[in-house]
Structure formats: structure tokens, C-alpha cells
Amino acid sequence: MAAMALLGWLFGGCAGYRLGNIGGEAVQGVRSIYVPMVKNESYAPDLQVVVTNAIQRRFDTDGTLRTTDSDHADAELEVVVRRIYREALRPEVLDPLATAQYRVHIEAQATLINRRLGRKTLDHVNVDGATTYFTQKDMVEAERQALPLAAEDLAKNLVSLVVEGW
Prior knowledge:
The protein is α/β, with parallel strands linked by helices. It has three helices and six strands. Strands 1, 2, 3, 4, 5 and 6 form a six-stranded mixed beta sheet that branches.
């Protein structure tokens, strides 16, 4: 009896776990996904390439869905970068009117078309990615170097939304 209680106690903590993918309604029956080139409505040139590559890499790293071409995909993810904005986080120590650190955000909208169900399972859902950077001497260059990191964060949030439902 004590052995049964011990086994119940040991394995009871795993009761919420399950094997396999954990996707919700958005990925029912979906094993592969096509990510076309992201549309860029922001001021940043060529950001669509950076964001598209980040999303595809994140899906490949996650492993729940396999990225493929349009003809063989069970689902298609359309993404539109709506805007980029920055917020001041910290002033310069010696010049309180100047900003030393910013957070840059990439705002996008995503639509997931589940071809197996024949409908949109995510429709114009807002997704955000952000990172921080210090300005030092060249603010434009610092932001340019920070945008790929914000794109990676956007991709992480977007892939989590698609495969996990949040």
C-alpha cells in the first residue's frame, strides 16, 4: 500500500503533461506551414526579410510545425508589420534631457489560414516584439542593430501563439 502511495505521489505531478504537440484549434490537423514574405508597412527598409527569416527559423527551432513551400503546406501564415516605435527608458546621467536607453517595438498583425479546416483560425491578431538598446553616439545605427533582436522576439511570440494558442 505504501508503494502505491509513493508511486501515486511521484507520478501525480505529471498528470497535466501530455505527449505530442500542444496546439489548440489553430493547428488542428496541421503538420506543415508556409510563411510567405512578410509585408512591411513600417518606415524600416528591408525589415520584411529580417522578420520572415526570424519566423521561419523559429518554426524550425520549435519543431511542432515544419516549414515548407505553398503547394505542400497544411497552413499559411500571413504577417504584416504595421509599425515600429521606440520608447525612452533611461536618461543620460550627465544630461537628463538626452536618452541613454530605448526599447524598440515591432508591431505586426498575423492571419493563419488552416487549409485542412478551410478557414482562418487566427484573423488579424496583433503580435509584438521588442528589445532594448543603448544609444551611445549613433542612435540610428544602434536601432538598426536592435531591430533583428526585436524581430526574433516577435517571431518567438508569434510561433507561441500559433502552436500553443497564446
